Amino acid sequence: MNNLFSLTLLLFISSFFCVQAQDVMLIEKNDHTTIEVKVSDISQITFHTIYLTCPDSNHPHVIDLGLPSGTKWSCCNVGADSPDENGNYYAWGETEVKSAYVANNYVYSHWTENSYGIPVQIFDDIGDEIAGTQYDAARANWGGSWRMPSLQQFKELMECCTYTPTTQLGTKGFLLTGPNGATIFLPSAGYRFAMETYSGCRYWSSTLDQEKNNAYRLNIYNQNWDCDSNKRYYGLPVRPVCP
Ligand SMILES: [Zn+2]
């Protein structure tokens, strides 16, 4: 009886440890401290070289502005070959460019009729945060760990950086300087509505404005900058971040 009890106890203990088993990735640093991460928590592993300024013309580069969150910013926009180019315009959640940006051709909506028979556009729920998802224009076009910046990451940029209106290689825009002195240039690429391109310096965030069914954007003007809400079907440029 004692043996049976012992065997049962042994099986119970071993099954307990089996259930508790988990795979971890161990990274040993040069100072011999170790970072341990559960493999089940890892979605992908990417390697980047981080710069304070573009070292060559092989853009995009990962720029470290010295931000508290550790967020790194790209040196250029999605679709741009260099920091002074405007790059592409995307409707929020879409990952391909198009010739016209209007409510009618916005991919993530559908139309219904209200009780008066008037057409009403319903915006599809593609998530409150699309960074890193299939709806992220930075991830879809650049891959790796690139993603659209969140509203929070834009707010950090505004809190921690200074900006100067400037012209770079003939392109008007703003030079943002981080706490460590590193800089990125944001062209005033404007935005697209219907088939026109309008002036301004606006950039999509990955964050939905639930109240208005819009999404948040960064706005930079000569005298100030802020984050507000923009209709999802407008075409805006995207400046990617690394997490
Ligand atoms: Zn660069």
Structure description:
The longest helix has 19 residues, at 2-20. The radius of gyration is 24 Å and the shape is globular. With 243 residues, it is an alpha+beta fold. It contains 3 helices and 16 strands. It has a domain at 50-103 and 129-242. 32% of the residues are buried.
Task: Give a concise summary.
The protein is of the alpha+beta class and 243 residues long.
What characteristic shape results from the CA principal axes? globular
Structural class: alpha+beta
Unreliably modeled segments:
none
- For the biggest β-sheet, the strand order reads 3-4-5-16
Q: Enumerate the distinct ligands.
A: zinc ion
Report the helical percentage.
10-25%
| Total beta strand runs | 16
The helix/strand series, from N terminus to C terminus, equals HEEEEEEEHHEEEEEEEEE
The largest sheet, given as strand count, sense and whether it forms a barrel, is: 4 strands, mixed
Radius of gyration: 24 Å
Strand-residue fraction? 25-35%
The span between the termini is 58 Å
Mean pLDDT: 93
Q: Count of helices? A: 3
SSE topology:
Elements: H1 2-20, E1 24-28, E2 34-38, E3 50-51, E4 62-63, E5 72-74, E6 109-113, E7 119-123, H2 137-142, H3 151-160, E8 162-168, E9 171-177, E10 183-187, E11 191-193, E12 196-198, E13 202-209, E14 214-220, E15 225-230, E16 241-242
Parallel strand pairs: 3-4
Antiparallel strand pairs: 1-2, 4-5, 5-16, 6-7, 8-9, 9-10, 11-12, 13-14, 14-15
Bound molecules: zinc ion.
Residues 54, 59-61, 75-76 line the site of zinc ion (ZN).
